[in-house]
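User: For my dataset I need records formatted as: sequence, then structure tokens, nothing else. Please produce one.
Assistant:
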Amino acid sequence: MDALPARFGRFRVLSQLGRGAMGVVYRAEDTTLGRIVAIKTIALGGVSGAERDQNEARFLQEARAAARISHPAIVTIYEMGREGDVAFIAMELLEGADLRDLIRDGSLSPSQALTIAASVAEGLACAHEQGVVHRDVKPGNIIVLADGRVKIMDFGIARLREPAVKTETGLLLGSPQYMAPEQIVGQPFDHRADIFSLGLVLYEMLTGVKPFAGEDIAELTFKVANLPAPPPSHYARGLPAVVDLIVARALRKKPEDRYADAAEFARDLWAAIPEVRAAEAAGIERTAYAQTVPRGAAPGAATGAPGEVIELRPSPRFDSTQGMARLTVMAPEGEPARTNAQAAPVPARVRRARVDPAGLAVAALYVLAAIAAVLIAVG
């Protein structure tokens, strides 16, 4: 291990907390105020002048973005500066667990998941009011403290209302598995992208499953932009329907169909917690299993053990019965509409039926998924 630096400004380095691709995080003492802090650093040497300036500007934008927000769920920034070829940010030292690890351990109850998501939503609402869009809301950027409070970390790629850092056109910043549709396809986006990302995090906390996954960015992009996520109760039996509705609204493909702001999202989450606790008392069962489907295996083939998660692919021999059953047959005036699954056998001579456009869209998505499965199987 490299020798510890002595200090950064007025902060005396005590130990190393962690190391990343671009810098190191240290435990340090604020010699002026006598408190223990975390020092996040980024090495600026060894790169070209333009890249160096860009790295430093983006790093310091994290400090500016977080420092303008005062909220219990946002990490507190104390100071930023530079020592030689190292830029640093001094922030509050957090003693807690990475949400990513809590999800992996399966230790979160549904009510805890909603509580964490509601607290994060409140923090994001405060950030959005200050003109800051986080752009990288994911489990790895959320810390759960010992007393249950949460802290949102890493505003390194946050977008300010008047950004100090202009990124290259087409540069994808963030974590694709937690991006909103408009964000992952490179379209303009606003604070509602953070709401979608938090919806994905909530889904994963509740089920242990990521609602969208792909073998490459192209497959992932297609699913995020086009395919609906199964309701969380599909993987957590006994979860109240209100949770499915909240998650579904957060994960709407069009930003205007989602929650208008994160504060509204938080209010619905807090309101749902008593019902979720009652369901926990009655019993909620997770049904996700670890199954791996080898490429080229027969449809339905799966192996594995409980506790892990897979994504089951549609069979290349796609059966459209389920999709067709969702179509609505418009009955003559005065008679109730029926789905195809409810309809009686169609006589040889029948009037032309009109099809519900929403149902047709669902069926089309099934067909697209089948085509994609065939192409993958052939490839």
